[in-house]
């Protein structure tokens, strides 16, 4: 079953995932460190100014749902917290490194284009090019246990569509485009520009596969 989060819970989970990847020596996080991570001005949208009491309240709620846990070491006087959102021993929700980096960025910053995601998520997991971001996004949109991401309707004047995470609910203010391979009988028709974009993504995927096969043959 897909995890459902409030917008504030998404910020806490996103901050825990980010720090687990980028500063593993400082993870799990104390309440103070997690509060600072949630209130961080860089790589956050919107920027919030929560007191520790608000973060503790959110942690308590997440802990009751087995999505966060106090993992203080023996003899530690300061409680430290880690997420149980995904990629845990007993949990069913699993992401690849690229998928997790994308999900984390979407939880922390909201809807973004593949180009924006490549620039921001690469600090957590490398992406060779935007095509790799698009492949990971398509996987997140089409997984059997998902979807976890939706492509939003392209804004006028923008070449790329933005993508949004669905853990905080379906998109309410803007229509989402269907996932790749959606049935023609669904009543949703892709615009010409959208079909061109889908073809461009398919070509990039094929080019990467050919390059990979060529490398294996030469090796």
| Number of E-state strands | 6
Number of separate helices:
7
Class per helix and strand makeup: mainly alpha
Globular, elongated, flat, extended or rod-shaped: what is the shape?
globular
Order of helices and strands: HEHHEEHHHEEEH
Sheet with most strands: 3 strands, antiparallel
Quick tags:
mainly alpha; 3-stranded antiparallel beta sheet
Which secondary structure elements does this structure contain, and how are they paired or packed?
Layout: H1 7-22, E1 29-30, H2 31-38, H3 52-64, E2 68-70, E3 80-83, H4 97-109, H5 114-121, H6 130-142, E4 149-152, E5 163-165, E6 176-177, H7 192-218
Antiparallel strand pairs: 1-3, 2-3, 4-5, 4-6
Structural account:
The chain is mainly alpha-helical. The protein is built from seven helices and six strands. The chain has helices at 7-22, 31-38, 52-64, 97-109, 114-121, 130-142, 192-218; strands at 29-30, 68-70, 80-83, 149-152, 163-165, 176-177. The strands form two sheets. The protein has a three-stranded antiparallel β-sheet. The protein has a three-stranded antiparallel β-sheet with strand order 5-4-6.
Care to give the gist of this entry?
This protein has 219 residues and is mostly helical.
């Amino acid at each position: 079953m897909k995890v459902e989060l409030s917008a504030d819970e998404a910020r806490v989970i996103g901050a825990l995932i980010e720090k687990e990847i980028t500063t593993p020596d400082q993870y799990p996080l104390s309440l103070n460190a997690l509060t600072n991570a949630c209130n961080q001005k860089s790589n956050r949208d919107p920027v919030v100014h929560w007191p520790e009491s608000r973060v503790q309240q959110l942690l308590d709620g997440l802990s009751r749902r087995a999505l966060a846990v106090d993992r203080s070491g023996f003899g530690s006087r300061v409680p430290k917290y880690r997420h149980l959102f995904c990629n845990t021993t007993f949990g069913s929700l699993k992401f690849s490194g690229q998928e997790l980096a994308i999900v984390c960025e979407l939880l922390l910053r909201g809807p973004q284009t593949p180009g924006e995601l490549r620039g921001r998520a690469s600090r957590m997991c490398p992406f060779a090019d935007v095509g790799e971001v698009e492949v990971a996004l398509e996987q997140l949109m089409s997984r059997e246990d998902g979807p976890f991401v939706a492509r939003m309707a392209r804004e006028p004047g923008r070449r790329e569509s933005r993508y949004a995470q669905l853990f905080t609910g379906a998109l309410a203010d803007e229509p989402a485009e269907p996932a790749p391979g959606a049935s023609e009988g669904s009543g949703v028709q892709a615009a010409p520009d959208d079909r061109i974009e889908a073809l461009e993504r398919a070509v990039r995927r094929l080019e990467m596969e050919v390059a990979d096969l060529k490398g294996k043959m030469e090796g």
